[in-house]
Amino acid sequence: MLLYLIRHAEAEDLGTGAIHRDFDRPLTAQGRQHAQALARAFIRMNLPVDTVVSSPLVRAYQTAKELLTLWHPDDRPVTCDELALDRLKPAKLSSFLAELPARGERSPSRGEKAIAAVGHMPDVGSYLAWLLGAAPGSIHMAKAAVACVWFKTIPSRAEGELRWLVSPDWFV
Question: Where do the domains of the chain lie, and which CATH numbers do they carry?
Answer without folding.
Answer: 2-104+113-170 (3.40.50.1240)
